[in-house]
Amino acid sequence: MQPTRTVQKLTCVIITALVLQLTACKSNIAISVMDTENPIDTDQAGLLSEYRIGVSDSLKISVWHNPELSTDVVVLPDGNISVPLAGDVRAVGETTESLADTITAVLDTFIRAPKVTVSVLNASSSEYLQRVRITGAVNNPLSLNYRRGLTVLDIVLLAGGPTPFAKPNKALLYRKENDEIKVYPVKLTDILTKGRLETNYSVLPSDIITVPEKSF
Question: In degrees to the nearest 10, what's the CA dihedral of 51, 55, 56, 62?
């Protein structure tokens, strides 16, 4: 379990550094306007069209008619897995089909016509990368698993709400869209005290909400 915890801690450090960097230079950030008339289909947002294997994923390697070569493995931090007879094989970034083809090609030099299948037992890397996060002037900054139906208000309430030193109406939502980071204003004061829900956006995997502090 140690490699998984190490990867998660490193990921948290990277995300925190990114958020701090974005917050520090927010005066230069182009604020976007969300197209609420054509919202993203959140029923499909959490689905992956083609799953790519990541660090800490648990995999089942099955070699037909060769149970001694079949094994359950965890993808190590270096991106490799260890397969009986085949040795170390690169797994990170591969699909289950492409990884099976790679293992098949290696085993083909040792056994006749190997038939290999790869299945994902636990997609730890995907679950972590698709988390949603809130940081800054909230009572309990947090990172949680994405679930369909979550909104900005849900995340803020789960975080215990803004602190007394927060500037809720200056909150920002960071979202990656088509390899570009978009930044959307979130009017938390309006949402929490006035019932104005125009910026109570549905959240998507990997969204980050930041709530700045007042400057004294």
Answer: 60
DSSP state letter for 18: H
Order the strands of the 71-74 sheet from edge to edge: 71-74, 58-63, 116-122
DSSP assigned state of 202: B
| pTM for the model | 0.59
Give the Cα separation of 19 and 208 in Å (integer): 8
Between 120 and 23, the more confident residue is 120
Q: What phi, psi does 67 have (nearest 5°)?
A: -60, -25
d(CA 68, CA 74): 18
Q: Which pLDDT score is estimated for 31? A: 74
In angstroms, the CA 52 to CA 91 distance is 9
What is the chain's length?
216
185 plus 80 within the same structural domain: no
Which residue's structure tokens are 């958020």?
19
Residue 203 lies in a domain: yes
| Pairing mode, strands 87-90 and 132-136 | unpaired
Last residue of a domain, one of 67, 92, 126: 126
Look at residue 117 in the predicted model and tell me its pLDDT.
96
In single-letter form, the type of residue at position 118 comes to V
Which residues, 6 or more positions from 84, have their beta carbon under 8 angstroms from its beta carbon? 68, 69, 71
Residue 52: which of 114, 105, 115, 98 has the closest Cα?
98
Which residues are within 8 A (CB) of 110 and not within 5 positions of it... i.e. 6 or more apart? 85, 86
